[in-house]
Amino acid sequence: MKIGLLTAGGDCPGLNAVIRGVVLKGDRIYEHEFVGIKDGFRGLIEDDIVPLPRQKVRGLSKVGGTILGTSRFSPITHGGTERVKEVMAKHEIDALVVIGGEGTLTVARMFHDDGINVVGVPKTIDNDLSATDRTFGFDTAVSIATESIDRLRTTGEAHSRCMVVEVMGRHVGWIALHAGIASGAHAILIPEVPVTPDELCDWVQRAMDRRRAPTVVVAEGFTFAGTEQIESDRVDSFGRPLLGGIGEAVTRLVEERTGLETRNTTLGHLQRGGVPSSYDRVLATRFGTAAIDSVSAKRWGTMVALHGMDIANVNLRDATSALKTVPRDQWDEAAIMFG
Ligand code: F6P
Q1: CB of 236 closer than 6 A to ligand 1?
Q2: Which end of the chain has fewer CB atoms at under 10 Å, N or C?
Q3: Under 8 Å between Cβ of 169 and 243
């Protein structure tokens, strides 16, 4: 078969390891031919397609970013599946391996519904896809956030300041929860759990009373109980508002209410950059090799997933139907140590 690979949506550490896994196993075991589609769905619509022989994927598992480029380009509003079929026919592409998050996999499902041969691979640092226990990229993002919070704590302690750290995650709090637990934060604020300003200031005050420098980890999608989510007036190319700003709002609130000098750090895209962790390299490689097995077995419309320690195949429809949010009891476990 001739197979087209694309990476779409926000980049994520481990994308290149997936590409390597797909191409190496596909070449060695199945003798498939591969092409790379540039910048996600843009390359598929605008016919920006390059050969992807196995030499191109050498040494890639440790490389961050994606050699194919990525974008948040919607093919549905740019010619749709008819145009995709036309470009695939021109290049004699039999099937697509689409590596992406919820939005990308929703598009992949639409392709499948319209008769395009497609297999999905889940990626996102947010870890918010319900059909897989883990997505690659999450472990790296948590490690980067944890190391950053550890560093911020030492400067916070030196100045007796409260340090607020805003992390990514969109509408879920997985990165905040894990990095917060790992770094021993005094409060972790996530979108799934409403917290009032009084509760937060109580945790900060308790840490202060013990002469600790209070550390607050806040997920970008968090809002105080009864308030609106903080969104910027800018939108991404899917029209979704960019999140961010809650860290600064929390910082001002804590300083005003407790009188403690407080600083905000927004980690932003640092969480997506650089080399993937060994965990993410392994998971991404396993996803890649499993995806090419699915293509070879013609399991169209499915996505590879992690269930426990095992790789599974799930229907793309199930994979995109609901967000995987943090269960309340997992936050409660962490909250025992707040303050
Ligand atoms: O979905 C991954 C993610 O990093 C989110 O955590 C974040 O809200 C968003 O992407 C940022 O998107 P962009 O790269 O378009 O700024």
Answers
A1: yes
A2: N
A3: no
Cβ distance 87 to 35 under 8 Å?
no
- Mutating to test ligand 1, I would choose from 99, 140, 242, 267 the residue with most ligand atoms within 8 A of its C-beta, which is 242
Give the distance (Å) from ligand 1 centre to CA of residue 170.
7
Q: How many CB atoms lie within 10 A of CB 236?
A: 12
Could you tell me the distance, in angstroms and rounded to a whole number, from the CA of residue 289 to the centre of ligand 1? 26
Residue 280 bears catalytic tag: no
Q: Does any ligand 1 atom lie closer than 6 A to the CB of residue 123?
A: no
> Going along the chain, which residue ranges are E strands?
2-7, 33-37, 49-51, 95-100, 118-122, 162-167, 187-189, 215-219, 231-235, 241-243, 262-266, 302-307, 310-315
Count other Cβ atoms within 10 Å, centred on residue 27. Answer: 17
Q: What's the CA angle centered on 141, arms 306 and 97, to 5 degrees?
A: 45
Whether 132 and 169 have beta carbons less than 8 Å apart is answered as no
CA 10 to ligand 1 centroid distance, Å: 6
Question: Residue 253: its pLDDT value, please?
Answer: 96
Residue whose C-alpha is closest to residue 119's, from 3, 23, 9, 286: 3
Local confidence band at 234 (pLDDT 50, 70, 90 cut-offs): confident
State if residue 10 touches ligand 1 by the CB under 6 angstroms criterion: yes
